[in-house]
Design a protein that fits this description.
The structure is a homotetramer of 147-residue chains.
Chain A (H helix, E strand, L loop, with lengths): L5 H11 L2 H5 L1 E7 L2 E6 L6 E2 L3 E2 L1 H20 L6 E9 L8 E10 L3 E10 L5 E10 L13
Antiparallel strand pairs in A: 1-2, 2-6, 3-4, 5-8, 6-7, 7-8
């Protein structure tokens, strides 16, 4: 069982992160150490040529990493991104973007995860992201078995 | 001389990138292979604790890289980010964020640059970014001497 | 079918890359856009505490990316790494290290791939790597369908 | 004053890291939060075309980051790399490689730094590296003022 439900996580990010409603990001599914998020297509995110702006994709990936981490450690507001690397692979067409995130390593102090972004209904990866979150030292999260 | 003026670059991004007016990004200075951009403080970018959202910092860095690249190759709309790595170093307080970008390498096909983000009036780096842009093959940009 | 066999790739790297025999890197399997490499355990690669040196893991990952790329474009000696990001996740014990690489995107000019490193016989990922290779423009590799 | 001298650091890495004598890495200068290292030219590091192997450059950068971190926290053997991103910018000719590292942020648990690699006697950057080290929690290193 994840330490937060999809509904709880959505309520948290709607309240905490103004870019979430702006970008139209929704929690589709939250499991232990994995998350699926959706960013609704939105004219405000489009670049010329009909593709979706890079910062919107980065924002979606960052929120997805946050979901992955909180699914394991629960509501820890001090969890913060320490680094993020994104490779843009294909220009996403004007459509919803889906983000599939999973944990790679949950340590006592750092969590590392991976997010793949897809255009809705397409098999090819649009962008690949790895990121690290710093998690507060209280509570040794690394003892809990991962899926 | 840069291949675009600060005014021309600002007009381009205002027209092309909807996130630019949303984030309040302005071109402060554009030189050959270097750029200074400013993101005005804006309540829509704030996270709890009064710090500025990571995706806004990533967006600012990405636009700054774009400025650095176009200062060298001119208005090339097909220039696209291929990857970006950001390290978040300190939580920026609620204030304007300044981005200082410079080119590390301009090749025939790829441009690599670096961006440092600062809070206005502070000496410590808030975030460090490296990124790669793909530039169209027409015109061998690598021949032009860099500063 | 890959454009090189495992034997051909091994012969190439044995001849070209002095670090390959030094690190004891072997090609286990080469498919279209995927590769499995093995680095034999070797006292020269050990750090205090019995773990394997980071640069050896980075070298193994880089060679694995090279295998993934050449499996798709054939023997192209001008293919060069343009960037590499590694996350070290767990300290590998003194044992062989296996690297599983796959292509994420093969474009006309850039190839992006991902490599996961494991300790032989262990399920947990030891390190996660993404990297970009620049491939010479002659021959439009992006037309060939990927697996 | 750095918490280790260049001589002490060299002795530490000669004893601890077998790749250091193999790659011919020497500590040229160690300051508080900054280091200059040299990798002697060595036929074992060469690739066809006379350029230096990527893994040797990555190894040099990693050791330089280690020097930067230990200059601030002293001899802490549990300091380990958690991630490293390298951009290869130019093919280094067959010559010594110099690495200039500096700290970007020293926190209680993480240290982030940057390394620029040069060919001896050349002004252009050969590779740009950012990396993160995890430092043991004992001792709050973040209180010490940086240069």
């Amino acid at each position: 069982m994840p330490k937060m439900s999809a509904q709880e996580f959505q309520a948290l990010i709607d309240a905490e992160l103004p870019l979430v409603p702006l970008f139209g990001i929704r929690t589709e599914r939250l499991g232990r150490g994995e998350a699926v998020m959706r960013m609704a297509f939105n004219d405000a995110l489009v670049r010329p040529g009909g593709t979706i702006a890079g910062p919107a994709l980065m924002g979606l990936a960052d929120v997805t990493m946050y979901a992955v981490v909180l699914s394991l450690v629960g509501r820890v507001e001090l969890a913060v991104t320490t680094n993020l690397t994104i490779h843009f692979l294909r220009k996403p067409p004007p459509a919803d973007v889906l983000a599939e995130g999973r944990i790679l390593k949950l340590g006592k102090r750092l969590a590392v995860g991976e997010v793949l972004l897809y255009s809705d209904g397409q098999a090819d990866v649009v962008a690949h992201v790895t990121g690290t979150y710093s998690v507060p030292p209280a509570g040794d999260h690394s003892k809990a078995p991962l899926p």
